[in-house]
């Protein structure tokens, strides 16, 4: 598995207003969610990881090599970033041509790019729309096209910026499966999310950003159980955990399924 290590990272768009303030983080083999209120620096952080912005100080090591010494092409083969807004990414006039851009850019042959792009479209349930103009699809579908274009590149690290925004239950289920399959394939997955329920249901590790700092990080259950610290970052606990607490169910449950299981068990009588 590819390793991404972030050391004492600092960044400001404008020197007077620092945005990333000394972040240290190592990606490991756990699926990792980044949460944090609007403007806490999440998107800026992942743009730094992808080499789209350069740190003011600190280092990002990709498998031990400083990202600052790598070319855009070298980074593109190793790190895929699915943008929050697909329209920042889409510019071709057919879905297939659009998805093929990334694979062709990183050196896949025409045949390889066509095959990997068709397979990626099938993974996001868009088989059959290859010849459609992406702008004849709705926003949720365009987000899937943008996701497919990154999947087709088969990078060892995949970063998502708000993949579930604007997706219905079916779309979220597709994204959940994609993320779980990527992990099963040995890839590192990092995902910015506002949806605490999705983060709790899908991710093993949660990183909390607050005003450019890393406020909390750890296993999802442990992080989401820290209600007061989350409130400090203007974040809420997952719905299932709040319901479980309201019902007096112990154990900091993360998902509706865990609550259902707890309710189905016979009550524990006090000894
Ligand atoms: N291109 C830019 N130029 C100047 N300032 C920027 C730029 N992009 C973001 N910022 C500022 O940097 C700060 C962090 O923004 P960023 O988008 O990284 O936060 P975020 O946590 O991803 O927010 P959101 O959840 O709303 O996407 C904000 O104050 C934002 O206004």
TrEMBL record:
One of its GO terms (cellular component) is ATP-binding cassette (ABC) transporter complex. PROSITE patterns: ABC_TRANSPORTER_2 (PS50893). It is found in: Cell membrane. Coiled coil: none annotated. Keywords: ATP-binding, Cell membrane, Membrane, Nucleotide-binding, Translocase, Transport. The keyword Disulfide bond does not apply. It is a peripheral membrane protein. It comes from the Bacteria. Gene3D superfamilies: P-loop containing nucleotide triphosphate hydrolases (3.40.50.300). This is Abc transporter. Residues 4-236 form the ABC transporter domain. Belongs to the ABC transporter superfamily. SMART domains: AAA (SM00382). One of its GO terms (molecular function) is ATPase-coupled transmembrane transporter activity. It comes from Trichococcus ilyis. It holds the Pfam family ABC_tran.
């Amino acid at each position: 598995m590819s390793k991404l290590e972030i050391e004492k990272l600092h960044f400001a768009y404008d020197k007077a207003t620092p945005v990333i303030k000394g972040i240290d983080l190592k990606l490991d083999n756990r699926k990792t969610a980044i949460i944090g209120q609007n403007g806490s620096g999440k998107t800026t952080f992942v743009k730094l990881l992808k080499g789209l912005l350069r740190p003011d100080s600190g280092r990002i090591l990709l498998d031990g090599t400083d990202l600052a010494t790598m070319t855009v092409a070298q980074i593109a083969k190793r790190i895929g970033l699915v943008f929050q807004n697909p329209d920042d990414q889409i510019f071709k006039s057919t879905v297939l041509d659009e998805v093929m851009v990334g694979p062709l850019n990183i050196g896949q042959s025409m045949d390889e790019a066509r095959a990997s792009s068709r397979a990626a479209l099938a993974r996001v349930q868009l088989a059959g729309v290859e010849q459609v103009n992406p702008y004849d699809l709705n926003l949720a579908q365009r987000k899937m096209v943008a996701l497919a274009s990154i999947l087709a590149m088969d990078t060892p690290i995949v970063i998502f910026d708000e993949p579930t925004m604007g997706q219905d239950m079916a779309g979220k289920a597709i994204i959940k499966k994609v993320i779980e399959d990527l992990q099963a394939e040995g890839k590192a997955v990092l995902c910015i999310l506002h949806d605490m329920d999705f983060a709790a249901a899908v991710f093993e590790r949660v990183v909390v950003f607050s005003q450019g700092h890393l406020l909390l990080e750890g296993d999802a259950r442990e992080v989401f159980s820290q209600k007061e610290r989350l409130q400090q970052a203007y974040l809420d606990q997952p719905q299932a955990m709040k319901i479980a607490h309201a019902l007096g169910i112990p154990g900091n449950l993360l998902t509706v399924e865990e609550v259902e299981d707890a309710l189905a068990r016979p009550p524990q009588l006090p000894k």
